[in-house]
Amino acid sequence: TVSETANYLLGVGRADVTGPVAQVPLMGYAKSDQAGAGLLSRLYSRAFIVAELNNSRRVVFVSADIGMVSQRVRLEVLQKLRSKYGDLYRQDNVILSGTHTHSGPAGYFQYTLFWITSKGLIRPSLNSIVNGIVKSIDIAHENMKRGRIFINRGTVENSQINRSPFSYLKNPESERSRYSSNTDKEMVMLKMVDEDGQDLGLISWFAVHPVSMNNTNHLVNSDNVGYASYLFEQDKNKGMLPGEGSFVAAFASSNLGDVSPNTRGPFCANTGESCNNPQSSCPVGGAAMCMARGPGNDMFESTRIIGQNIYLKAKELYEKASQEIRGPLSSAHQWVNMSDVSVELDATHTVKTCKPALGHSFAAGTIDGVGALNFTQGSVEGDPFWDQIRDQLLGEPSNETKACHHPKPILFSTGEMTWPHPWHPDIVDVQVAVIGSLAIVAVPGEFTTMSGRRLREAVKSEFDSHGTPRMNVVIAGLCNVYTHYIATFEEYQAQRYEAASTIYGPHTLSAYIQLYRGLARAIATGTIQDLPRGPEPPLFNVTNLTLLPSLGAEHAPPNKNFGDVLQEVRQQYRAGEVAEVTFVGANPRNSAENATEHNFLMVERYSNVSGTWQGVQNDASWDTRFYWTKGSLGRSNVTIEWHIPHGTELGIYRIRYFGHYKKQLSILHTITVPFEGSSSAFGIT
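The line above is the sequence of Neutral ceramidase; the predicted structure tokens follow.
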């Protein structure tokens, strides 16, 4: 359908946020020994700008392939946008959302709790995220064109289970009976085209944890939703390498708090029997043995199966989308001190939120990733700074905090820990952006299925009762600042992982519902300017503070150079096999700290026509895997695998490696030197 008229100015952009792929812990499972050791797929920030045709109002939505948007990331991005664009892009009209992959580099937080498993605040990690998000917005900003937006929705099957079904059952039967499932299976999809009907991009919102890759993984990647983005972008950007091309497909997070992609459910790793019980516990080995299984034979295959399911549904919705979004843009935002909100439950009943605290089940983890917070057992002993941090963890919560969080047994009273900075945020963003008949509710964490349903319903009814009926309300998860989980009051009573991680106490959800209702009411009644701004969040004076090993001089083995082949490819392969080559390597962190978008590898095919080698895959491809192995004496190896897909063109190929090594010039001075290597040519027959 070619345009009658454009309704908006639209811009889309994509930029790299991968950062250091070695030695930095991965963010998500809170397992400090799960550090990066290579790359399966690149991480991207995907930005979408919608502006009114007269350019008066704008809304920016960003979905980044990271665990969550931290307050530090958000504040630094807003600072950079302010210095570039003045007050065009602000805290009210810019939504930053994380996809919630658990396989991206950590270290981009300013609150102390997250330092423990992240090994501190890691500047290269933070910079790559901040700069990549800003760059994706820059690209969208520079490519604004007249266009149209369509919305569609549909059901995604066989891609999720509720991982805390016993908590879900605590919700009132009268409420549960209104829903056919204990997860939200609906995908909401926005399709953006220019005024000639040319494809620009899409945003999909669907509630599922990107934890198909489990906590044994050490390769940086964007997990199932990232694979869906990759499939959609490869389909639309024909003939381009992964990560290139103008079409941008974001698969964004929603109310995924209790939703797992590991559809075969929880089994005991040692005996193979089901551990789908209220404690997620095994007869031998307890909860530590209970792990959920995905649909595939291994985590790589499970990631592809779930990602493909999500992609196929989005593709179908995209092709059939006909309901157009029209109407004005608006956005509302407040900062709120979440540790001190009074909630009016009814005319006679007022309750309060609490100072943040985590309950005992937080340390147990979930069936998607078993808890590993055993750092109190001296993993950093002997370092007075980290010893002091550990001593605080062992501090006793105040009686006030205990009473406020009841029935949560408090493990870490983070709201009462302030050294060297607060351990958890008090000041939290609440934000709603409206594009015509779509309201995007940007939430600072992981709402469970039922919490999300209650929030959507409350926001919708607020619009309904103030003259804006038929609003499409969608929840964007993991936005702006990370505050863990938001369970319902009833789920909170069960104190499983999601409830133990509802950090502001049993009335957290009620407080958010009250706050988001207020934002929706202000938008619907045109009174946004009367909303109090709220207390501004702090930006702590911490620039780089990390337990990461420093980058010292590196060496090749005797009589070898960096990039030399140590283990050669075979001469021939067939589709379905794995071509593998090992090089004299160097620490990939050198490359991340030297270049914003460094590509570590190319698979090239020899063209008889031109007599040249042509790139067919890069390190963003899901068919290539880049492994880094640290040796002793400043040595390391890099192994590159190409999992040759069926349908690969026959011919002559080679695999190339690009790296940087640190060279000692004098006692005080090292420089970073680029190098490359190549495998021998091999045939695909």
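Note on the example: The CA atoms of residues 398 and 680 lie 66 Å apart. The longest strand covers residues 651-664.
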